[in-house]
């Protein structure tokens, strides 16, 4: 299952910029809700553990799920994660890295169609791995931005692009809007220069530009106004205005100009 290797590669790319950080750096607030680097890695490690528990011990995962605060309700979920994961700084980096490497090895041997339970509907292990890659990439963006580092993107971003495309209906539904009948036509350029297309070419609703920037919009790490995406048509415009490829309550994308790589 190549998504397991992509998850590990994404995690390795993030962990590489954390090696050697001072303890004070781990407590610096990012542009994502003022979460610190510690907060972000705690979050990623907590949900990696949850995904692995859902695979290996679904009964215990169901019990654990009953104790987890509902997302979007103040700081309850964040406090819960930090009570569960007590390591910080270099120690946190070590335990997070140990688990994601181990998961990558074990999950790569699974049937991608195998079903696992989750906080929402059950999903395939392929989808679970893609979700873990997406969260790592999206939350990692805040860390790269804080440190003033441009991430070297790879074509594994396609997994996140596909997740964003598949979440078109969810993006409208979670915001209380009618789901469009058709997907806007997408023509996106991959980091390698390859061109990826989705939807029918005859659509009046179209999105053209960088696959990375599309992924940034659907994961809400950038406002569409801060990208070079060419968005045409009312459905495409509404989608990019509040796209959300992740579960949970409706979230508001960052305001224009509030998420950026420092020093640029």
Structure characterization notes:
- It is a single chain.
- This protein is of the alpha+beta class and 264 residues long.
- The chain has two domains: 2-151, dinb family like domain (Four Helix Bundle (Hemerythrin (Met), subunit A), Up-down Bundle), CATH 1.20.120; 157-242, Nonspecific Lipid-transfer Protein, Chain A (2-Layer Sandwich), CATH 3.30.1050.
- Helices cover 51% and strands 8% of the residues.
- It is built from eleven helices and six strands.
- A four-stranded mixed beta sheet has the order 4-3-5-6. The chain has a two-stranded antiparallel ribbon with strand order 1-2.
- The longest helix is centred in the middle third of the chain and has 23 residues, at 125-147.
- The radius of gyration is 18 Å and the shape is globular.
List the SSEs and their pairings.
Blueprint: H1 2-18, H2 23-26, H3 37-56, H4 58-67, H5 76-84, H6 89-107, E1 115-116, E2 123-124, H7 125-147, H8 158-166, H9 168-173, E3 185-189, E4 195-198, E5 206-210, H10 211-218, E6 230-232, H11 234-242
Parallel strand pairs: 3-5
Antiparallel strand pairs: 1-2, 3-4, 5-6
Summarize the structure.
51% of the residues lie in helices and 8% in strands. The protein has helices at residues 2-18, 23-26, 37-56, 58-67, 76-84, 89-107, 125-147, 158-166, 168-173, 211-218, 234-242; strands at 115-116, 123-124, 185-189, 195-198, 206-210, 230-232.
